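Today's session is about reading a structure prediction critically. Students often jump straight to the picture, but the first step is always the sequence itself: look for stretches that repeat, for charged clusters, for runs of hydrophobic residues. Only then move on to the predicted structure, which in these notes is written as discrete structure tokens rather than atom positions. Here is the chain we will use throughout the hour.
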Amino acid sequence: MNNDQIFKDRARVLDEDLAGRASTAGADALLAEIVSLERTPARRRLLPSPRRALLGVAAVAVLAGAIVVGPSLFGASEQVYASQAVTIDRVGGEYAFYFTEGHPDPAELKKAFHQVGLDNLTVSLVPVPSRMPAGSVFGFEKSDPDARATFAGDSCPERVEDCITAFRVTADIKGPAKVSLGRPAKPGEKYAFPADASWPGEALAGVNLQGRSAAQAADVVREHRLKVAYELDWPLPNDEKGTRFEKDVPASRIDPDWQVARAESYNDGVIVLHVVPGPAATPPSGF
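Below is the predicted structure for this chain, in token form.
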């Protein structure tokens, strides 16, 4: 997966651009019109009027002493598709996708992508712990070397009501492309990626098992009516820095005195104890 970042172009009016310019009668009239505009309540899935947005920028310029309108102002966001599951905006050379359902109907998504000419784009929304940083689970696979995609969930609620996650992607992608995007898991839904079991809201919230023996940690897990699973955290060979993880290790191979490095949860009633093998232990053949 390649994670690519897209930098947003922003039009700016510099002080030196305004030096020596005075407000004109037309500018003053425009400012008066702006001030007299009535405020209207925000509506679901509707973006601000391009004219209203343009007048707002113009007002700032008038107050500074002149009106300066750059070409980029005319490339503002424009809603091009909206359904119960997804809303799509055109933002310059990109499409912005805002999701309001965690399990959108694939047929509905296909219809949405076809509507904007992205028939070769697929999106996978995967459940992740709500405490994970926004955008920490984001992947982009593509065959087009010029295609770009970026997480846009930070602006999600500001753009579309009930939005749960969002991303932007190059509008003229050539060839197949796939976006993997994390979204908050529903209560009781199994995570695609593990969470620290001691995080608030998790199965062992506030309980720190790090440094305890495997036997002690297992007892604590069972006291909370949860199941125990084990992984062994082996050091890399040849004194290299790092760790390799052996998963699904049976309890019979765990020394009760080995220490626990951390405890993880997939929100499925099982706590995975990461155990550090003792100095005399050796990894299994072929591992």
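Discussion point for the tutorial: Confidence is low (pLDDT under 50) at residues 1-24, 30-75.
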